[in-house]
Amino acid sequence: MKTGSEYIESLRRLKTKVYAFGEQVTDLVDNPLFRPHINAAAVTYDMAHDPVTEDLVTAVSHLTGKRISRFTHIHQSTEDLVKKVKMLRMIARRTGTCFQRCVGFDGLNALYSVTYEMDQNLGTNYHERFKEYLLYVQDTDIMVAGSMTDPKGDRSLRPSQQADPDLYVHVVEKNEKGIVLRGAKAHQTGIVNSHEMLIMPTTAMTAEDARYAVACAIPVDAPGVIHVFGRQTNDSRKNGQIDQGNARYGIVGGEALTVLENVFVPWERVFMCGEWQFAGTLVERFASYHRQNYGGCKGGVSDVIIGATALIADYNGVAKASHVRDKLTEMIHLTETLYAGSIACSAEGRPTPSGAYFVDPLLANITKLNVTRFIYEICRLSHDIAGGFIATLPSEQDLRCPEVGPYVEKYFRGVASVPTEDRIRIARLIENMTGGTALAESMHGAGSPQAQRVMIMRQGNLEQKKKLARILAGIPEKE
Ligand SMILES: Cc1cc2nc3c(=O)[nH]c(=O)nc-3n(C[C@H](O)[C@H](O)[C@H](O)COP(=O)(O)OP(=O)(O)OC[C@H]3O[C@@H](n4cnc5c(N)ncnc54)[C@H](O)[C@@H]3O)c2cc1C
């Protein structure tokens, strides 16, 4: 298994083509725009070597019996599923942000069981091929981005109906060596600091969409792959420290638009090519694993927000006010409710025909739907307690300025015993963790709320519930 610094050094050897602010990036690893995200991902590598955390962050490979990073492991039990959630919360408590490796982790698990089922049903031979790839991932401990979301153009049209066929990734050529892909994947978490990307379809397909039903693994620096880095709300603060809020690890996962300009993929790395009947299964499998995560990672991030909010209450001299204590209680209640959902969908997991374990999809979707609301409420309560200065604070440069620094120092002080700089640091942490990109991620990451509602209705078994009511009401069943 790689250490954090080995992971960081391995990125220097890649030729990843990244653009940001209209220019090609030549110093990705040391550039302050990317480095916080790289640091956050590096924590997942370092924690695998720490005796205190290794039980959660590592696992034993069912393929080789070797100890591997849990981020490359295929869940073999409900205990594995539960440990995944505990691991995500533990790492998020340390980073206070997204550490990016769960998307690829979920892609690996989804493809493992779905390739098995595809082979059983259609007589294809993807599962063995996928296992070879998995061995490679486990042996090299590479970071794999999960690439599902297509740009999608007109959302009312199917992939094959779009005016521009590239709005969904698709196969433009097949030959004896492999396939050639065109299109793009949007909102790609951690991709510029990953080694490979796992392409998956973003929606269920019909026979007309067959060339869009494609899953495969591609190095992020393969010829024809171009990444355009997304803007974040704290971009222009990246050269300072305090104003970033979380200077070491950043906010959210460093998302990018990844363009595929006629990218060649050898057959050894192709895990679905035209089997449109299984695109929907793959999307649902991936989405449920991914929705499982949110009570873990967002639980850990919320722990930091709660801590920051309690500190600001101390610094403002309001910690003993009953409404403040009530609001902090509510924040803890919401956080633990999210966590409980993630633990529950894991504990209720079941084996798939491949032997790999899958979460309870209904509970996983409930958890993520709660995340789309509760995180906003947690952040709202944090803003309420913190006060308006989290939005109106002068900059770090003003704090350091000989002319106005003393005024900032004097007039931004809360209780006399707490240095103004500490109060400002916590306010900036709250500002960055509770606004902009961080909030939208809770809404749309792992799918927008309606995607969860569709799954909840499908899994909710209304017919069985109607039957329960009929029995108690004494209504005989119809023939
Ligand atoms: C911070 C962040 C990180 C992410 N990381 C990743 C990642 O690593 N990998 C990855 O693959 N994806 C990632 N995503 C993408 C995420 O899965 C998508 O944002 C999500 O699926 C929603 O897609 P969209 O953003 O295109 O929004 P849209 O699909 O445009 O949704 C906007 C609204 O339109 C509605 N809508 C959409 N289509 C229809 C329709 N046909 N009929 C009716 N209503 C419709 C939705 O329900 C929603 O209310 C990330 C997103 C964010 C914000």
UniProtKB/TrEMBL annotation:
Residues 3-272 form the HpaB/PvcC/4-BUDH N-terminal domain. FAD binds at residue 189. Residues 279-473 form the HpaB/PvcC/4-BUDH C-terminal domain. The keyword Oxidoreductase applies. GO terms for molecular function: oxidoreductase activity, acting on the CH-CH group of donors. Keywords: FAD, Flavoprotein, Oxidoreductase. InterPro entries: Acyl-CoA_Oxase/DH_mid-dom_sf, AcylCo_DH-like_C, AcylCoA_DH/oxidase_NM_dom_sf, HpaB/PvcC/4-BUDH, HpaB/PvcC/4-BUDH_C, HpaB/PvcC/4-BUDH_N. It holds the Pfam family HpaB. SUPFAM superfamilies: Acyl-CoA dehydrogenase C-terminal domain-like (SSF47203), Acyl-CoA dehydrogenase NM domain-like (SSF56645). This is 4-hydroxybutyryl-CoA dehydratase. It comes from Desulfofundulus salinus.
